[in-house]
């Protein structure tokens, strides 16, 4: 029996992509960077985030590496940190939850316990959840930077289960990445649910929803959304 839902944050309950796009566009204007584009920033972010998730670089290191790769400049750690902090000011001004986040949390509040597992840092995500007004919805918030292991490694999923005092089979994990989130959760023994907001499809082996309004029904075993019936 499922007792808890553990959530990803970025691009699951929080609209990271929009905030990043709006923030970087404002930052490029403020910095006078006319030779670099948002697409450059997004590509570089993906590359260095993958290195962080693989344990090849630390949290602060991936930020500095992104800045240096993006600007093409040889910056000291302090200079790279300052540049990133200026970007964060624009990015944070654009923070918002998805419209379906709070209604879903409200609908599920009386039935399931809630936690967070993010491939980010605790300082970053705690601050974000508090600023967005939802930190008190989650009894546990765990992040890769402090755990020393990232999704899709089973140890990351098992850590949040242990923090909540639950076995993996008692926990569902909801995230926007089919492999890092849903498949990783399944392989760790949890119920993995892929939040496919763009309705990409193509992964029939995964429990899939296209909006959080569908989540209560899927958790109750309703298979109208193409999910295999794993709740018996």
Q: How would you describe this structure to a colleague?
A:
- With 232 residues, the protein is α/β, with parallel strands linked by helices.
- The protein contains 10 helices and 6 strands; from the N terminus they run E-H-H-H-H-H-E-H-E-H-H-E-H-E-E-H.
- It has helices spanning 16-31, 38-53, 59-71, 77-93, 101-108, 122-131, 144-147, 154-163, 178-187, 215-219, and strands at 4-7, 113-118, 140-143, 171-175, 191-195, 207-209.
- The protein is globular and about 55 Å long.
- The termini are close together.
Sequence-ordered SSE layout with sheet pairings:
Layout: E1 4-7, H1 16-31, H2 38-53, H3 59-71, H4 77-93, H5 101-108, E2 113-118, H6 122-131, E3 140-143, H7 144-147, H8 154-163, E4 171-175, H9 178-187, E5 191-195, E6 207-209, H10 215-219
Parallel strand pairs: 1-2, 1-4, 2-3, 4-5, 5-6
Helix pairs in contact: 1-4, 2-3, 3-4
Looking at this protein, list some descriptive labels.
6-stranded parallel beta sheet; globular; disordered C terminus; alpha/beta; 232 residues; 47% helix
